[in-house]
């Protein structure tokens, strides 16, 4: 009988196939080498490590579960594991990869014309072109169906007016996938960010996801050719399907942040001494560590289960809500508990725990808030919608 490993109590690694383990190990090594020691500084400076984007592309992490156009075409579970390892470094890094792959490349790949795919996907997969996804508006977050950004036809062209808020990668992007109301319903537009009338302003003073570039986008009589629209989808199901893809990455990713916090607390508890003994010897510290380990492992089982269902083509959006709701909540609880074990040191950027806890505040809110995912599940259980 094998003695359980405190860092993988249930032996989740044994549930993964060789390719999945290899991908997770490669990304973990990359994060340890290139990210772990710098993440605190990037957070403090509010700087996104743009120099890593080429490497993310070389490793096949950009649009990695898409096929063709230079994308790696891995399983969804492998994509989730890569998100987990990236987020073990910082949620900002995983956010970059989620937005690039699931929110900007995915809609072009799924709903775009051949020309749009050929123009953008290969360079986005290499990390030479960066994408962002504009759905949220200053006054419309949880209810995107009430968006005000509008595109109207002008001869063969489109004219876009409005603004989008809280847009990850907004100031870095070469291309924005912008969702706008039209006379035919909500449509997606592929907007090169050098188009006259496009402005991206960085959102400053964030206390969370500081490493991530977040922007407000404005469109002022922005003229687009007729073929800038995504031809394959009309209506809110377009952006919602992208969000479902990104949420899947998050339900794995958040556990990476949680794992770093748990391991940090475990290490700290074995070396920090008070009252003449390691704090890990106190019952209350052990209770915290055991609770963290149990929740982390249960979250991992859930993530792998949902990954297998996605790979089998049978993952309804409500179960993605289940995973995102549970695992982000789990992760934030673990991060905050880890902070209490590190006590005063826990509030410092010298240690990762409060940085992760703060980042997870954004993760709890974006891609559907905790409340909205609860109500999505509530509707599934009762047949009644409580949110509209
Ligand atoms: P609101 O919708 O105003 O909600 C306020 C509160 O009311 C919340 O607690 C909410 O749960 C609750 N609430 C709202 N409606 C109901 C209801 N019917 N029943 C019960 N409670 C309700 N958006 C993008 O489009 N692209 C991005 O790249 C992107 N990146 C982001 C990055 C960061 C760092 C952050 C913080 C946000 C990002 N977002 C992005 C926006 C994000 O998706 C929204 O913030 C989110 O959808 C919530 O919208 P809101 O902040 O306007 O809150």
From TrEMBL:
Cofactors (names): FAD
Acyl-CoA oxidase/dehydrogenase middle domain span: 132-221
Stretches assigned to the Acyl-CoA dehydrogenase/oxidase N-terminal domain: 17-128
Signal peptide boundaries: none
Pfam family, one: Acyl-CoA_dh_N
BP-aspect Gene Ontology terms: fatty acid beta-oxidation using acyl-CoA dehydrogenase; fatty-acyl-CoA biosynthetic process
Matching InterPro entries: Acyl-CoA_Oxase/DH_mid-dom, Acyl-CoA_Oxase/DH_mid-dom_sf, AcylCo_DH-like_C, AcylCo_DH/oxidase_C, AcylCoA_DH/ox_N, AcylCoA_DH/ox_N_sf, AcylCoA_DH/oxidase_NM_dom_sf, Glutaryl-CoA_DH_mitochondrial
Tagged with keyword Transit peptide: yes
Keyword set, alphabetical order: FAD, Flavoprotein, Oxidoreductase, Transit peptide
Span of domain Acyl-CoA dehydrogenase/oxidase C-terminal: 235-378
Domain of life: Bacteria
GO MF annotation: an example: flavin adenine dinucleotide binding
Alphabetized PANTHER family for the sequence: GLUTARYL-COA DEHYDROGENASE, MITOCHONDRIAL
Similarity section: Belongs to the acyl-CoA dehydrogenase family.
Record's protein name: Glutaryl-CoA dehydrogenase
């Amino acid at each position: 009988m094998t003695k359980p490993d405190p860092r993988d109590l249930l032996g989740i690694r044994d549930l993964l196939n060789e390719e999945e383990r290899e991908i997770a190990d490669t990304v973990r090594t990359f994060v340890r080498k290139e990210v772990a020691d710098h993440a605190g500084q990037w957070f403090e400076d509010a700087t996104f490590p743009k120099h890593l984007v080429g490497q993310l592309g070389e490793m096949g992490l950009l649009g990695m579960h898409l096929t063709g156009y230079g994308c790696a075409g891995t399983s969804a579970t492998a994509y989730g594991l890569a998100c987990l390892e990236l987020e073990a470094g910082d949620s900002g890094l995983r956010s970059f990869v989620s937005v690039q792959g699931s929110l900007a490349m995915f809609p072009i790949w799924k709903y775009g014309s051949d020309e749009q795919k050929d123009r953008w996907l290969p360079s986005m997969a290499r990390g030479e072109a960066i994408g962002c996804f504009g759905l949220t508006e200053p006054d419309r977050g949880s209810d995107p169906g009430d968006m005000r950004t509008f595109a109207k036809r002008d001869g063969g062209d489109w004219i876009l007016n409005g603004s989008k808020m809280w847009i990850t990668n907004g100031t870095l992007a070469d291309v924005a996938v912008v969702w706008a109301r039209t006379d035919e319903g909500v449509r997606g537009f592929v907007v090169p960010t050098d188009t006259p009338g496009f402005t991206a302003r960085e959102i400053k003073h964030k206390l969370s996801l500081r490493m991530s570039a977040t922007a407000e986008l404005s469109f002022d009589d922005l003229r687009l050719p007729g073929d800038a629209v995504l031809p394959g989808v009309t209506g809110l199901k377009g952006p919602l399907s992208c969000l479902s893809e990104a949420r899947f990455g998050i339900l794995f990713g958040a556990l990476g942040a949680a794992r770093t916090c748990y391991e940090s607390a475990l290490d700290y508890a074995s070396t920090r001494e008070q009252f003449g003994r390691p704090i890990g010897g106190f019952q209350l510290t052990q209770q915290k560590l055991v609770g963290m380990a149990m929740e982390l492992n249960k979250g991992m089982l859930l993530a792998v289960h949902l990954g297998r269902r996605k790979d089998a083509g049978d993952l309804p959006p409500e179960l993605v809500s289940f995973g995102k709701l549970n695992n982000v909540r789990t992760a934030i609880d673990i991060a905050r508990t880890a902070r209490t074990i590190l006590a005063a040191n826990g509030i410092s950027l010298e240690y990762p725990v409060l940085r992760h806890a703060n980042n997870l505040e954004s993760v709890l809110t974006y891609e559907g808030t905790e409340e909205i995912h609860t109500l999505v599940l509530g509707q599934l259980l009762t047949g009644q919608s409580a949110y509209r």
